[in-house]
Design a protein that fits this description.
By secondary structure, the chain is an alpha/beta fold. It has six helices and eleven strands. The chain starts with 12 loop residues before the first strand and ends with a strand.
C-alpha cells in the first residue's frame, strides 16, 4: 500500500497492520487535538486444554496521533487502514489456526471499541470461520466492538458477571463537514440499528432509545435484553494455556 509521504521513522504497527496516512481512505480523523489518540483492536492467540480449540483474545490499543506522519495538520489524514486491511490480517491469523488443526474458536473480547472500520474488517474475517465459534465477553464490549458481537452468528455468547456492554451513537471518523459528513453518519446510524435489532430482536423504538441514551448494560441486563445467551461468574482461564 502506498503512502502519500515517506515517514522519517518507522510507523507503529498493530498485529501486523501498519498505522499511518493512507490516501483515499474514508475513516479520516479530526486531529485538532495534538494529544488525542486513536484506538484500534489488538489481539493475541492462546492455546486451550481442549483438543482442537484455541482462544483469540481481542483487546484495544491506543496510539498517540502525534506519533503518526501527517502532510497537513488538520486535513487529508487517515490514521488507520480501511476495513479490508484488518479483514486480511485477521484472515491470515485464522488461516494459521486452521492449519494447526483448530476447529473450535473462542473469541474473548475486552474492549471499549475504537475505529469502526477495524471492527468491521475483523468481523468480516471471523464470519468466514468454518468451525465452531463462541464469543466470551470478559470486561467490556462497547461502542464499535459491538459490531463483532452482533455481526457474527455465534454458537454461544457468554458474558462474565462484572462485564458490561455499551451502545451509543456511532462517531464516523470523517473530518469533512456538511452534508457529506451527515450522509455517512446517517448510514452508520442505520447500520448499527439494523445490527442491534437483529441481535436483540427488539423493536426499533426501543433500540433507538438505547442508542440515544448511550445505555450501558450490566451482565444480567445484557442477558435479559438479548445481547448474550448466558452469564458466568468468571472466565474459566484454567482451560487455556499460552500458545
Amino acid at each position: 500500500m502506498r503512502y502519500g509521504i515517506r515517514p522519517a521513522f518507522k510507523l507503529p504497527t498493530v498485529n501486523g497492520v501498519r498505522m499511518g496516512r493512507y490516501k483515499g481512505e474514508k475513516n479520516r480523523a479530526n486531529v485538532k487535538d495534538p494529544n488525542a489518540t486513536v484506538t484500534v483492536p489488538s489481539w493475541r492467540v492462546e492455546g486451550s486444554a481442549r483438543p482442537g480449540a484455541a482462544a483469540l483474545v481481542i483487546t484495544s490499543e491506543s496510539i498517540h496521533i502525534n506519533r503518526l506522519p501527517m502532510r497537513r495538520r488538520f486535513t487529508d489524514c487517515a490514521l488507520v487502514p480501511s476495513s479490508a486491511a484488518w479483514k486480511r490480517r485477521m484472515g491470515q491469523e485464522l488461516t494459521r489456526l486452521r492449519q494447526k488443526g483448530v476447529t473450535d474458536l473462542d473469541v474473548v473480547v475486552d474492549s471499549e471499541g475504537g475505529v469502526r472500520a477495524c471492527w468491521e474488517g475483523i468481523t468480516q474475517a471471523i464470519k468466514g470461520w468454518k468451525g465452531r465459534g463462541r464469543l466470551l465477553i470478559d470486561g467490556a464490549c462497547s461502542s464499535a466492538a459491538t459490531i463483532l458481537l452482533c455481526g457474527v452468528r455465534w454458537d454461544c455468547v457468554t458474558i462474565t458477571r462484572r462485564s458490561h456492554i455499551t451502545v451509543h451513537n456511532p462517531t464516523v471518523e470523517l473530518y469533512e463537514g456538511g452534508r457529506r459528513h451527515d450522509r455517512h453518519r446517517d448510514a452508520a446510524d442505520k447500520a448499527f440499528l439494523k445490527l442491534y435489532r437483529k441481535r436483540t430482536e427488539r423493536k426499533a423504538e426501543i433500540v433507538k432509545q438505547w442508542i440515544r441514551e448511550g445505555k450501558t448494560f450490566t451482565a444480567m441486563e445484557a442477558v435479559v435484553a438479548g445481547w448474550v445467551d448466558e452469564m458466568k461468574p468468571r472466565m474459566d482461564w484454567e482451560t487455556h494455556a499460552n500458545a
